[in-house]
Amino acid sequence: MVRPLTERTANMAKLAVPLPSGVVDAIQQLVEERNEQQGPGQQRLYARDLHEEALRELLSRVETGESLLFLAPLSAKARKSLWINGDLKAAVDDLAGRHGVTRAAVVMTALHGYLSRRGKLPASAAP
User: Which runs of E-coded beta strand occur in the chain?
Assistant: First the structure.
């Protein structure tokens, strides 16, 4: 039996970006930690939730006027597909266009800052 589409799954968009080794594992570790801290009846988190949280944090920082230095993604890395909200992807594309960087640079900067602020940045992801 096929699951019916929810509004959230119907509005997904794919971002394929190169990520340093360790970033995917660090995000997954945070997912597991936060799920362990959740109380009964709270919705389970997935990596997608944290990817979106990281991107929204970056967009919020830009909206408040913070000056950012975008990180260049590593071109030799394998690309990882991230599924995020379609409107969020459009905001990422807009930010990339306004600052003359690639969407991969926006994603890399968002994830790097997100993990760094939580003390989870792997050594392999340091610029």
Answer: 12-18, 79-85
Alpha helices in the chain (DSSP H): 7-10, 23-37, 47-63, 86-99, 103-117
Tokens of 46: 């997935």
Count Cα atoms within 13 angstroms, Cβ side, for 107: 28
Q: How far is Cα 106 from Cα 55, in angstroms, rounded to an integer?
A: 8
- What phi and psi values does residue 46 have, to the nearest 5 degrees? -130, 165
Task: Name the percent of the chain lying above pLDDT 70.
Answer: 87
DSSP letter at 67 equals -
CA atoms within 13 A on the CB side of 8: 6
Write the single-letter amino acid at 62. Answer: V
Q: What is the mean pLDDT of the chain?
A: 87
Alpha-carbon span 109 to 100, nearest angstrom: 14
Percent of the chain with pLDDT over 90: 63
Q: How far apart are CA 111 and CA 44, in angstroms?
A: 20
Look up residue 77 and give its DSSP letter.
Answer: S
Task: For residue 7, give the amino acid letter.
Answer: E
Q: Name the pTM for this structure.
A: 0.86
